[in-house]
Amino acid sequence: MDFELNYEISRTVDYLRAGNFTRVALQFPDELLKDSPRVAKALRSELGAGVRLFVMADAAYGSCCVDEIGASHVDADCVVHYGHACMSPTSTLPAMFVFGKASIDIKDCADLIGHCLSSTNKPILVLYGLEYSHALMHLKTVVADSLVLSHSNWGPMVKYSDVIGSVINPSQDCTTEKDQIRSLNGSITNAGFTSGRDEKKILKFGNGRRMENGTCFELGGLTWSIPSDHKIEDYLLFWIGPENSAFTNVVLTFNNCEIIRYDADERRLLEDTSCQRRILKRRYYLVEKAKDANIVGILVGTLGCAGYLSIIQQMKELIKGAGKKSYTLVMGRPNSAKLANFPECDVFVYVSCAQTALLDSKEFLAPIITPFEAALAFGRGRQWTGEYVLNFHDLMVSSGPEAVSGTEEARFSFIKGGYMEDIQPEENGEHEERSLALAETTEKALNLQSQHPNTIMFKGAARSGSEFFAARSYQGLNRQYENLAPQSYVIGRSGRASGYADEKMQAKESPGAAI
User: Fold this and answer.
1) What ranges in 2-74 are assigned the alpha helix state H?
2) Fewer CB within 10 Å, N- or C-terminus of the chain?
3) Whole-structure pTM over 0.90, yes or no?
């Protein structure tokens, strides 16, 4: 395929000229970075010297998200994002997406869709990776023609999802981080937003919102609607694309649906989604394990998705209402070495976009769960009904954290095999969350250690980070000196290492020795 057509050079030039952007950040994933010089050269030849282009790579978080932090370092006006994208809304910068044009055999794909129609009595909903969106119109035409030639009346039984768009403007609710922080200080409704927000804007992130003529869905940059008398479970989901994070998002979100995947590279149908469905069992185990946690770390996995500060605040209130202690951690992409520096945390809640939210925590010392799983674990009385939510925007439109009474009865822990009490009064009182809060409480706990050294003997009994560190057997170098009086100073050696002054003096005193 033509290089300029694949990277949509002319459309990008039109967008940059229409927006009058003069400082543009070009974001590439690792697999496309080799083409970045040619893309920048092609754009520069069209835009001229009045527009400065900056190539960004190695995003601070997932490459599917717009790296607004990296773009702010070069004071960019907008971001052009290349490759796979999660289409998460931005908070400060406008972004244009170039999905690419992956190759696909239209005739073979259309034949397999027709084969699925003849072998099932369900209507088919065609979903796809955004890199195949360029072939959608051609696919619709070929499928319709093949159904006409076969004299079949199954045409209305095939529905296609559409791309929401290739341009995203900053969220109108919170255009800057300062505005987001200000909104958190306002009145928060059950949905986690300030009461002055437009309900229609909030519901645009929902996986299935009711409309007059049916139900509308949005997921991973795709949108589609079904009649009001139909359910999503009534459809056979036909996915076109590889087995990546976008496909896992579809399988987990619609885990009650029958799903078939068409591998465009190998040109074959794959019906086995057991690997993705086993993930649900693993996630449910992590939810049960998180219920026994006392100290929770909130991992910030994005600094660009609109609304991330709102969901962090909602998680803090949820954890506090469950009688647990939380700490907010910002460390870029998490790995086992980074998280090992926080052994006091029994579980971590990872706030990120939907397609990077699932982290395999088998290599980590503590499990890592999503905000939806945290709502199940820390919300008293909530049970998992099979519904699974990966996009934290969908979680914010649901009910907010429930107030938990301190007189709640003990619950049964399936992990420890006994009853546990979640709510315990805090002995150290409330501490304002600021940069020195942890250091101050740790110092206080260490001063009181001599009064009760054996109160906490193992991890899991600590109610805060200071209690955990106070119970550690190793607390750093603390050498005890018998004589507390200061020692007199000693004059050190002088000269060069090849022959210090004292060594030369010794040589002169010993005539038989050689220097």
Assistant:
1) 3-6, 9-19, 36-47, 68-73
2) C
3) no
